[in-house]
Amino acid sequence: MVLWSDEAQEVMAGDLVTAFAYGTPAGGAVAIPVSPTGLVDRDAGIIGVTTSLAFNGKLRHILRDPHVAMAYHTREHGFATADDFVLAQGVATVPLTPSPEVLDALKPRIERYLGAMPTGRFWDWVLGDYLDNRVVIDIAVRRMTSWPDKHAVGERSVSGTAWPEQQPAPQETPAKGTGPRVDTRKLHGQMSKLPHQLLSYRGADGHPVVVPVRVAGHSEQGRQGAAGPVSPPTPSARRP
């Protein structure tokens, strides 16, 4: 059983927007925005997130490798007020069919975070797939890590499995080389405007890791990032 602090509990129970990360066959990790609507059971050591069965690519990846992570990185939405950056890592269980009972229990929670849902013949048809064709992914938490600052600076607190001391193993070199596949100048311009910039990667023990970064520059080799506050960028903190 992984126990976590009251501050981490407040963050997980209150954040509306989080980053959910899962592994890829190439050995990387993908982070996507989700709204877990406070799905956290502290006594059972479980957190949750809902997803539509239409996103079957994501579900296939999780079924292949159930090691996942959830990063609670912003207080701009929801009800949490603590400054902590919280990273929960664990093992996901993916149901293959929706449970009407579980989905019915979700509706009051969804309305608390997203507001009352419109009703009527049209809206029942439009939202039917969203509300009924969903599953709840349960994540048994194996490690809970929090930093006292939203930029993940300062001393971290770890509950559960110890943070691995070794560095993640390098990925295999792609067949087409390691050069950028996109216009790095254009992408830098788009990313630098975002209020939240996150980096995800596969940790040494197989669990995805999500950390806040800031885009500090770009070149023909790719983008440059640095840890710390997203803005303003400081040249002294740049690194490849």
The count of helical stretches stands at 5
Separation, N- and C-terminal Cα atoms:
39 Å
| Largest sheet entry | 8 strands, antiparallel
The helix-and-strand class reads: alpha+beta
**Helix and strand sequence:** HEEEEHEEHHEEHEEE
> Beta-sheet strand percentage?
25-35%
Mean pLDDT: 85
Number of strands: 11
What is the global morphology? Answer: globular
Which spans of ≥5 residues are poorly predicted at pLDDT below 50? 230-240
Q: Give the helix proportion (percent range).
A: 10-25%
Radius of gyration: 19 Å
Briefly summarize what is shown.
The protein is α+β, with helices and mostly antiparallel strands. 22% of the residues lie in helices and 32% in strands.
Overview of the molecule:
The protein contains five helices and eleven strands, in the order αββββαββααββαβββ. The termini are far apart. The longest helix has 15 residues, at 100-114. It has 240 residues and is of the alpha+beta class. Residues 230-240 have low confidence and may be disordered. The strands form two sheets. Strands 1, 2, 3, 4, 5, 6, 7 and 8 form an eight-stranded antiparallel sheet that branches. The protein has a three-stranded antiparallel sheet with strand order 9-10-11. Strand 10 (208-219) and strand 11 (222-227) form a beta hairpin.
